[in-house]
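maleylacetoacetate isomerase
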Amino acid sequence: MNIKLLICRTANNCEKNFLKLNPLGQVPALIINGNVLTQSCAILEYLEETVPHPPLLPKDPVYAAEVRKIVDVITSGIQPLQNDRVLRYVGEKSNKWAKHWIHSGFENLERILQKTHGKYCVGNDVTLADVCLVPQVFRASQFQVDLLNFPIIRNISQRLNRLSAFSDTHPFQQPDCPINVDHVM
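Predicted structure tokens:
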């Protein structure tokens, strides 16, 4: 199986080539045997269906619904308001805008996690919610969101980042990571 995950569309002047793969120009894009999959949730669901071990959705439908709720809070409620395309449109106030919406989203997420968390977002197993949380916490750090206000998010994120599945895939570990990842827009 030939697999390639593209998480940066600007490295090595590849934007035109990237647009050929994904006309939306958004990342990530997962290429598997020549098939291009886009959009984070669609990719995560594909991986859950095709690589079921370890499972990233609990078998219990109630816990699985909690995982999906957290995924939606992050991917629909926080991330779209601070993605690069929106921040370019907002202009000079983009850092303030992003920080506000991440902080606001984390307030809601912290309340949810009070009821669902164990070692991780939902219980003691890594789930799709955790996979979405880690990059959002990374993005929050780019906008100086103070995680001391969010102890559950901070603690879960720290535990997750100690796992090789997360530390090995950190943006700074990627060969196409821009030198200045703090302000990639």
